[in-house]
Amino acid sequence: DAGVIQSPRHEVTEMGQEVTLRCKPISGHDYLFWYRQTMMRGLELLIYFNNNVPIDDSGMPEDRFSAKMPNASFSTLKIQPSEPRDSAVYFCASSLVYRGYGTDTQYFGPGTRLTVL
Amino acid sequence: LAKTTQPISMDSYEGQEVNITCSHNNIATNDYITWYQQFPSQGPRFIIQGYKTKVTNEVASLFIPADRKSSTLSLPRVSLSDTAVYYCLVGGYAGNNRKLIWGLGTSLAVNP
């Protein structure tokens, strides 16, 4: 398997523009996570899906952020309008099998480095 | 929710054993402890996971005391390639939701 695939790898945009980040999870994985990483706040869980359904979006910073998972092999994270403080690396991760307790091994993509000018 | 605290940085030399401790005083009964490794420009990569006592795999050991309020990642005989950021993750399930609390990471520098 190619692993988790994210695109684009780098995105530079101007304040106010719409940004769409894309993720293809590992085939067969039933959980998908979106994270944001910054120096100040570290790794933050934004939202996660189980079987394409959003389960917990309490980490989404505000209404400018939205995420969708139309099918098992594709998810998007959209920021509209974007602001300079959204500049960060955004990771997508997927995992397999809800075990009832504990955390499952998450496989991370390479990330998208977003710069909002 | 459990909050994790780990040292910001550590220095070591090739061939030494490195121990990184993470504090998680409010860990819940159902929470597991997982450690990830991250290299620059890459996503975090799973190293090891445990619930209590000791877990060992081919790359590391994880020590968890009985009260589970802390955990220690042990890397035996580190090499230059072990220079990375190491994250402690405490997580479990609260009802139908997963709660994943990441530490801010420990930047490990291995010197020749």
Number of helices of chain A: 0
Q: How much helical structure, as a percent, in the residues of chain A?
A: under 10%
What order do the helices and strands of chain B follow? Answer: EEEEEEEEEE
- So how many helices of chain B? 0
Q: Describe the global form of chain B.
A: globular
Strand content of chain A: over 45%
Q: Which chains make the largest contact?
A: A-B, 21 and 25 residues
Q: Would you tell me the structural class of the helices and strands of chain B?
A: mainly beta
Shape summary of chain A: globular
Overall number of strands of chain A: 11
Give start-end ranges of low-pLDDT stretches of chain B: none
Structural class of chain A: mainly beta
Query: Mind telling me the C-alpha Rg of chain A?
Result: 14 Å
Chain-averaged pLDDT of chain B: 90
Order of helices and strands of chain A: EEEEEEEEEEE
Unreliable spans of chain A are none
Distance between the termini of chain B: 40 Å
Topology:
The complex is a heterodimer of chains A (117) and B (112).
Chain A lengths: L4 E3 L2 E4 L5 E6 L6 E8 L3 E9 L2 E4 L8 E7 L2 E6 L8 E8 L11 E2 L3 E5 L1
Parallel strand pairs in A: 2-11
Antiparallel strand pairs in A: 1-3, 3-8, 4-5, 4-9, 5-6, 7-8, 9-10, 9-11
Chain B lengths: L8 E5 L4 E6 L8 E7 L6 E6 L2 E4 L4 E4 L5 E6 L8 E11 L2 E6 L3 E6 L1
Parallel strand pairs in B: 1-10
Antiparallel strand pairs in B: 2-7, 3-4, 3-8, 5-6, 6-7, 8-9, 8-10
How would you describe what is shown here?
The complex is a heterodimer of chains A (117) and B (112). Chain A has 117 residues and is mostly beta strands. In chain A, 0% of the residues lie in helices and 53% in strands. Chain A contains no helices and eleven strands. Chain A has strands at residues 5-7, 10-13, 19-24, 31-38, 42-50, 53-56, 65-71, 74-79, 88-95, 107-108, 112-116. In chain A, strands 2, 4, 5, 6, 9, 10 and 11 form a seven-stranded mixed beta sheet that branches. A four-stranded antiparallel beta sheet of chain A has the order 1-3-8-7, with no helix packed on it. In chain A, a hairpin with a 2-residue loop joins strand 5 and strand 6 (53-56). Chain A is globular and about 35 Å long. The mean pLDDT of chain A is 91. By secondary structure, chain B is mainly β. Chain B has strands at residues 9-13, 18-23, 32-38, 45-50, 53-56, 61-64, 70-75, 84-94, 97-102, 106-111. In chain B, strands 1, 3, 4, 8, 9 and 10 form a six-stranded mixed beta sheet that branches. In chain B, strands 2-7-6-5 form a four-stranded antiparallel beta sheet, with no helix packed on it. Chain B is globular, with a radius of gyration of 14 Å. The chains are: A mainly beta (117), B mainly beta (112).
